[in-house]
Amino acid sequence: MMKIGLTGSIGMGKTTVAKMFAARGIPVFDADAAVHQLYARGGAAVEPVGAAFPGTVKDGAVDRAALSAAVVGKPAELKKLETIVHPLVGRLREDFLRMAEAGGADMAVLEIQMLLEGSSAKQLDAIVVVSAPETVQRERALARPGMTEQKLAGILSNQMPDAEKRARADYVIDTGVSLAETDAQVASLIETLRKT
Fold it and tell me: Which domains are seen in the chain, by residue range?
């Protein structure tokens, strides 16, 4: 089974492209959704995150706003959080891949925002980066609830620059075009991957 990494900076359209793969019957692992699951009441990350970052757990779940305030713009704190969360996400990802393969999938997509910043990329067969012009990216990101210029700057400072991501990609999907054009790129890419 081919393992495809799907990544891109904030506001680039990763989730939209992941849905286009899923609509074609390709299993998709959403790392952000896995983190939400881990942070929810009863999630495996609640206790260790609460211990490492006092005041970030409310009503038995991780309060993402409080956690964000504790780590954004603080590299050492972010690293501490990653050492707790990454292994837990890794276990969920391995379970997903086993199930996808057992289900007979010929490929599976792993949607991971910080894919190229970590070590997961080495275990994949292809890296797909979604990209759009900076003006489009900013507009999309700032339209999100609770997003501010300052918060966006903090997030972008932790992410590899888009140009570097594109340079390290096996394939780039341009999401600065219409949804239909993006969808056509996804369809074409799936065809290409099936031939390799």
Answer: 1-27+106-196 (3.40.50.300), 31-104 (3.40.50.300)
Cα–Cα distance, 114 to 142 (Å, whole number): 20
* Alpha carbons 153 and 150: distance in angstroms, whole number: 5
Per the structure block, which two tokens stand in for 62?
């991780």
For 23, the token pair is: 């609509």
pLDDT along the chain (196 residues), means of 10: 93 94 96 93 95 95 92 87 92 95 96 78 90 92 89 82 92 95 97 91
The token pair at 13 is: 């359209």
Spatial separation of the C-alpha atoms in residues 109 and 122, rounded to whole Å:
15
Per the listing, tokens 């359209």 go with: 13
For CA atoms 51, 60, 76, 65, the dihedral sign is negative
Query: HEC states along 150-186?
Result: HHHHHHHHHCCCHHHHHHHCCEEEECCCCHHHHHHHH
The 8-class DSSP code of residue 130 comes to: E
Q: Token digits for 7?
A: 């990544």
Question: Cα separation of 125 and 122, whole Å?
Answer: 8
Give the pLDDT score at 75.
85
* pTM, entire model: 0.85
CA atoms within 13 A on the CB side of 99: 11
Residues 171, 126: contact at Cβ < 8 Å?
yes
